[in-house]
Design brief:
Low-confidence stretches: none
Mean pLDDT: 80
Distance between the termini: 14 Å
Shape: globular
Helix content: under 10%
Number of helices: 0
Number of strands: 6
Structural class: mainly beta
């Protein structure tokens, strides 16, 4: 199963882009755990359940 991807956009404000592989959508979220995906509703209780990327473009993952 493909993990959700969280791309850090503005770390001081704890904002990030999240990619939802279930719905093939992007959304902006505040980083705090437990984190709930606004696209599909899946809840993540820890950092290990989601993939963090910093400098990569989301296009480079082939979505």
């Amino acid at each position: 199963m493909v993990k959700h991807i969280l791309k850090i956009s503005s770390y001081p404000e704890n904002e990030a882009f999240i990619y939802c592989p279930k719905k093939n959508l992007y959304a902006v979220v505040k980083i705090f755990f437990p984190l709930k995906c606004p696209c599909c509703g899946e809840e993540f209780k820890s950092k290990t359940e989601i993939k963090f990327v910093l400098r990569q473009n989301l296009d480079s993952f082939g979505f």
